[in-house]
Amino acid sequence: MGYIMDLRKIVGHRTLLMPCAGVIIGDGKGNVLLQLRADDNTWATHGGSIELDERVEDAMLREVKEEIGLTVLDYTLLNIYSGPEYHNVYPNGDEVSCIDIVYYTNKYEGEICLQEDEVKRVKWFNKDSLPENISERTRTWLKEYFSRVE
Questions:
Q1: Of 11, 25, 31, 130, which is the most exposed, with the fewest CB atoms less than 10 Å away?
Q2: d(CA 6, CA 52)
Q3: Which DSSP state fits 134?
Q4: Which pTM does this prediction carry?
Q5: Domain count of the chain?
Q6: Which of 1, 8, 50, 22 shows the shortest CA–CA distance to 137?
Q7: CATH number of the domain to which 39 belongs
Q8: Which residues of 30-58 are buried (b: 16+ CB within 10 A; e: fewer)?
Q9: Domain that holds residue 23
């Protein structure tokens, strides 16, 4: 998050427009791999903010590799999400209005290796066993994902 962190030095906690790229990783059997975030202790998909001049797809691939060590091999655009429901206040007081570009895949390789300062753990869930402490944004994406892949 170099670009966003650089802006934070200027604007403090004020709301920033933040384009983000993420991916829902499935196993092809109805399960999705979620991560327990270290910053707010909620379950979420994998992804993060897009850096200056970075392609959206490259940001998604980079974030997955950084956060959980996997390499996404193929992916499909799920949807682009924005609006007031994508306004987020982080535990440190930083505010963002996200534009979330979300992909999905069941084609990946590698061994899971957590970026411990961002991810506490990962776990597979099916649509009937989603955790309670999941963000509404993630819940929206997963609802669309499960309706599309079933």
A1: 11
A2: 11
A3: B
A4: 0.92
A5: 1
A6: 22
A7: 3.90.79.10
A8: ebbbbbbbeeeebbbbbbbbbeeeeeebe
A9: 2-149
